[in-house]
Specification:
This protein is of the alpha/beta class. The protein contains eleven helices and ten strands. The protein has one domain: Rossmann fold (3-Layer(aba) Sandwich), CATH 3.40.50. The protein is globular, with a radius of gyration of 18 Å. The protein binds S-adenosylmethionine.
């Protein structure tokens, strides 16, 4: 079975995904190729998990499992609802799309599942969409990637900081900038090879024979580049309307957010 971008546009609205439908479609296609297990860091409402699960199903590799991990940070109730509602909606989505049997959900920090049997069995795909600490995730999971495994990283957009302005505060978001800096560092070290970028998502792979040995001093130098930064203002329309809009129509809010680039 082949699924289309249109299928993923519908799924994204239904589940409440944060990424562009083209990205979910590409995640699906990558997961189809994987003959080994799949790891996602940053489950949120589970839209990417559904795309990865459908890829695992349609790829025809019966043993491929999807491990997904969600930290459930401080503001998660505000974002995703009460813990009960959140879990019911998440598992409900997996059931609706027929992928529940393939998925193992873990709640907590990603680091806690390093020794999970699904990870230790070997990963054919790793999708990082959490808090931008890619060096931590590479340190923890790179060794489990089989040669040539797909490494997919979200928030590979601007190389400037983004400013979000609302009436009482300014938020400075450096995640995209840090992602660009760390991806560049990994490429230079020969541990990551770019295949393509879809919207703001980087699709790459572990080059054959590459091993990642974390070098704290070098990584510290990368973080030091954050001291000074150019910044761009996020779209005024989105910033001004987002809180109210989110209350009135969560699905329209999500759509607008995707259109305006977060
Ligand atoms: C941008 S959202 C993920 C979006 C999702 N993949 C989708 O398709 O819509 C990022 C999520 O990562 C989670 N997160 C942040 N740091 C994490 C960590 N260290 N381990 C696991 N999850 C984490 C956050 O709680 C948040 O829900």
């Amino acid at each position: 079975m082949q699924r289309t971008v249109e299928d993923f546009a519908k799924m994204r609205l239904d589940v409440g995904g944060m990424l562009d439908p083209k990205v979910y479609h590409e995640l699906y296609l990558s997961a189809r190729q994987s003959a080994h297990n799949i790891l996602e860091i940053g489950t949120a409402r589970g839209a990417a998990t559904v795309a990865l699960g459908l890829g695992a199903l349609d790829g025809g590799h019966e043993n491929v499992r999807v491990a997904t991990v969600e930290k459930l940070g401080e503001s998660y109730t505000e974002r995703y609802g009460t813990p009960e509602d959140y879990r019911a909606r998440l598992y409900g989505a997996f059931e609706r799309y027929g992928v529940a049997e393939r998925i193992d959900v873990h709640f907590g920090a990603a680091r806690a599942i390093v020794s999970d049997p699904v990870i230790e069995a070997g990963l054919g795909l790793m999708f990082l969409d959490a808090d931008g600490a890619l060096d931590r995730d590479f340190s923890d999971f790179y060794g489990a990637l089989v040669p040539g495994a797909a490494i997919i990283i979200d928030d590979y957009g601007t190389d400037r900081a983004t400013l979000y302005i609302n009436p009482t505060e300014i938020k400075i978001d450096q995640k995209h900038r840090l992602t660009k800096l760390l991806v560049h560092y990994f490429e230079e070290k020969g541990v990551l090879r770019k295949d393509q970028v879809v919207k703001e998502t980087y699709f790459g792979a572990r080059p054959d024979g590459a091993t990642f040995e974390p070098n704290a001093d070098e990584i510290f130098q990368v973080y030091r580049e954050l001291t000074f930064s150019d910044a761009k203002l996020s779209s005024a329309a989105y910033v001004n309307s987002s809180r109210l809009l989110k209350k009135i129509s969560p699905s329209f809010h999500l759509w607008l957010k995707t259109q305006l680039g977060k």
